[in-house]
Amino acid sequence: MADPRHDSVTAPGAPPLAYTQAGAGADVVLIHGSLMTRADLFMGLADSLVPEFRVTAFDRPGQGESGREGPTGTPWRQAAALHAAAQSLGLQRPVLVGHSFGGAVALAWAMQFPEDLRGVVALAPIAFPEVRLEHLLFAPRSTPIVGPLMNETLAAGIDKALLPILWSAMFKPQAIPERFASTFPFNEAGSRAQVEADGEDAAFLNAGLMLSTMNYPACRTPVRIFGGGADLVVNNNLHGKLLARLLPDGKYTDLEGLGHMVHHFAQAPIAEAVRDLAGR
Question: Could you give the maximum distance between any two Cα atoms of the chain, in Å?
Fold first, then answer.
């Protein structure tokens, strides 16, 4: 694989969004989850996709090297920002691959701009409103005045111990791959600014998911969903499987024995789903 391009794009109405791009062919866009950056999905899937596709992995607003203008907003607002960035880069009807929170963003993109994409591959997506751990751990840090002070205080102590535990739990029952452990930008993903953005994401998540839930039955985009049977982060029975039943063209595939980070261990079926959607 040729060296990927690292750059940023500023589209009208959107903050500067950092991206990594490699390959040639039909477009594929990768959208990462919480406490992650674009490096995660690119690291997991680029080797399988770049030989056939032009792959563009974005840092979501407020995440990684991307900026934010005001609060990060719901998955719907983030989807609009990413769509504008993709349009500015000249991406043509991509297949979206979204993981976890990024899956919620990819689905919101599909329901807002169905004519501008070929399909969605949702990996362990958060699809329906619920009370989640990140609401308790991070959402309070997005509150005015008190939140930034709380975030600064916790970042200096608790986060240094907490975040490695959360990253490890994402991969369980598998171990963190050696390549990920040695090259992923943990300092960036666990920075005070990104954790504050994760708090905003958590605070706005359920409002966006309520809107998504009302729109799933009218979604015109084909969606292929993958979930790990041993996922400790997202209950795929309550999210991916139910989502597949509500979508007009949804299909769920259970990856038995895998945890939340399925894209690091099941590249082949994910790549095949991308090929299928890209060929439509």
Answer: 51
Q: Order of strands across the sheet with 223-228? A: 5-9, 17-22, 53-58, 26-31, 95-99, 119-123, 223-228, 250-255
- pLDDT tens for 204-233 read 999 999 999 999 999 999 999 999 999 999
- Domain of residue 68, CATH code: 3.40.50.1820
pLDDT bracket for residue 195 (50, 70, 90): confident
Give the rounded distance of the alpha carbon of 45 from its chain centre: 13
Which is more confidently placed, 141 or 67?
67
264 lies in which domain range?
A: 5-131+203-278
Give the pLDDT band of residue 17 (cuts 50, 70, 90): very high
166 domain residue, yes or no: no
Structural domain includes residue 167: no
pTM over 0.90? The answer is yes
Count: domains in the chain: 1
Per-residue pLDDT at 43 exceeds 70: yes
CA atoms within 13 A on the CB side of 240: 28
